[in-house]
Every structure is written in C-alpha cells, then in structure tokens.
Amino acid sequence: MSESFTAKQVAEHKDVDKGLYIIIDSGVYSLESFVDEHPGGAKILKRVGGKDASKQFWKYHNEGVLKKYGPKLKVGDLKEEAKL
Ligand code: HEM
Predict the structure, then answer these.
(1) Over 50: is that where the pLDDT of 82 sits?
(2) If you measure from the C-alpha of residue 58 to the centroid of ligand 1, how many angstroms do you get, rounded to a whole number?
(3) Is residue 4 within a helix (H) or strand (E), and if so which, with residue range?
(4) How far is CA 56 from CA 2, 36, 38, in A?
(5) Distance, CA 84 to ligand 1 centroid (Å)?
(6) Average pLDDT taken over every residue of the chain
(7) Can you give the pTM of this predicted structure?
(8) Quick one: pLDDT at residue 80?
(9) Ligand 1 atom having least distance to the Cα of 73
(10) Which positions carry the signal peptide feature in this UniProt record (predicted)?
(11) If 0-12 CB within 10 Å is exposed, 13-18 middle and 19+ buried, where does residue 3 land?
C-alpha cells in the first residue's frame, strides 16, 4: 500500500506549500504538519526539505524518535533505483 517516490519527486516537495518531504534512510516523510511542533525547530527542517536528511537525522535522534513519529509522518519509500 505504501507509495513509492523517486528522489526527484521528493525534491519537488521542498517547502511547506508544496509539502515538506524529507528522506531518512529509504523512507519518505511528510513534515508540513510537524514543522511547527518539532522540538529542534522549524528552520532546521525547512533547510532539508526535499533532501536526504539521514545524516542530520541520526546525528540528533535515535531509533525511538522514528518509532514514535514515523507511523504518523511516513508517506512512502524511495524507489529501488533511487536508493543507489
Ligand atoms: C521525521 C523527522 C523528524 C522527527 C520526527 C524529529 C523529532 C524530534 C524530536 C522528538 C526531538 C526532541 C529530542 C528527542 O526526543 O530526541 C528533536 C530534536 C531535534 N531535531 Fe528533530 N526530528 C526530525 C528531523 C530532524 C532533522 C532532519 C533535523 C536536522 C536537519 C533535526 C534536528 C533536530 C535538532 C537539532 C534537535 C534538538 C536536539 C537537541 O536539543 O539536543 N530533526 N527532533
């Protein structure tokens, strides 16, 4: 049931108006409803809109954060070809 996105499609959702998507590992997360409640601030999330933010994410968070918020925010996965 989960949707599949290319990196290009994710890149088109790079601000709150178009949907703020970010990639963490192979998952695609939609954060426009979350930016204003992000404990780390809205600004830092907006900066990585449309991009792969795995490196930044794992620097500041642990698995528990994805477990808690992932089900609410995840909209799909990166297509195989885009993972390379
Ligand atoms: C699905 C995406 C994200 C979720 C659900 C999320 C959630 C959270 C939560 C719950 C916290 C509070 C601290 C904790 O419980 O660990 C936090 C803090 C923080 N987040 Fe995020 N975050 C996300 C993405 C990001 C990204 C992509 C960045 C960086 C570009 C970022 C940067 C930070 C920073 C700097 C803090 C503060 C850390 C501190 O005060 O020590 N977050 N985030």
Answers:
(1) no
(2) 9
(3) strand 3-5
(4) 24, 18, 14
(5) 26
(6) 92
(7) 0.92
(8) 74
(9) 1
(10) none
(11) exposed
